[in-house]
From TrEMBL:
GO MF terms, alphabetically ordered: kinase activity
The protein's name: Carbohydrate kinase PfkB domain-containing protein
PANTHER family on file: PFKB FAMILY CARBOHYDRATE KINASE (PTHR42774:SF7), PHOSPHOTRANSFERASE SYSTEM TRANSPORT PROTEIN (PTHR42774)
Keywords: Kinase, Transferase
Domain Carbohydrate kinase PfkB residue range list: 21-197
Length: 224
């Protein structure tokens, strides 16, 4: 292949992401602490997180035009997430903001010795439900999109969006981090699946067998 080959994309390719968005509290430690002990951090950061939030931020940095559908609360972490996503160039106009409740957040322990991270996740409240997806807003979010990304969270709402994307012949990418409730229904509609190293074995261990009609492009990524 010629070195000057260029894959030509639309001028402003649109990708829609649905799933987790939240705030990460990252504590870097020299080694993972034993139970019932104390340890000091070597570094501490507060930043946006969530698989879908991270993916849409990456898409914006790559020059795509991402839109995000998720749910936050009207609290300080939720407002911070909105500001961070908008600063990155992510369209947040389709986010659902609850007047009350709490936004999702995670405590993340980063072990500098073993090069691992341990996540302690607290879901947001109230959770997103299909009734939060107003039809006009959903159709506007999908208008012109080439791809819809799902991290398989909030499966009832995800399936509503995936079915609409499928009807519109929009490519569907599933981030199959691990077996989750409702994931099989999403995989039936998927064009592409990206999974962690442990996902195939974890699926077999739980007795999950995909139907013969399921056909998608499968990609395995490194340890997560």
């Amino acid at each position: 292949m010629s070195s000057d080959f260029v894959l030509r994309l639309p001028e402003t390719p649109i990708i829609v992401g649905f799933g987790g968005v939240g705030v990460d509290f990252l504590a870097v430690v020299p080694f993972f602490p034993n139970p019932d002990t104390k340890i000091r951090t070597t570094e501490f950061k507060v930043q946006g997180g969530g698989n879908t939030g991270n993916t849409m931020t990456c898409a914006a940095r790559l020059g795509l035009k991402p839109r995000i559908i998720s749910k936050l609360a009207n609290d300080a972490p939720g407002k911070a997430m909105l500001e961070e996503l908008e600063a990155e160039g992510v369209d947040t106009s389709f986010l659902v903001v609850s007047k009350e409740g709490t936004s999702p957040f995670s405590y993340i322990i980063v072990d500098n010795q073993a090069k691992t991270r341990t996540c302690i996740f607290t879901p947001g409240y109230p959770p997103m439900v299909p009734a939060d997806l107003l039809q006009d807003n959903l159709l506007s979010a999908l208008d012109g999109a080439r791809v819809v990304y799902f991290d398989a969270r909030m499966p009832d709402s995800a399936l509503v969006i995936a079915q609409e994307a499928f009807l519109r012949n929009i490519s569907i990418i599933i981030d199959a981090e691990r077996p989750r409730e409702g994931l099989n229904d999403l995989l039936e509609l998927a064009d592409y699946v990206v999974c962690s190293e442990k996902f195939p074995k974890a699926s077999l261990d739980r007795g999950i067998i995909y139907s013969k009609s399921t056909s998608f492009n499968y990609f395995k990524i490194a340890k997560t």
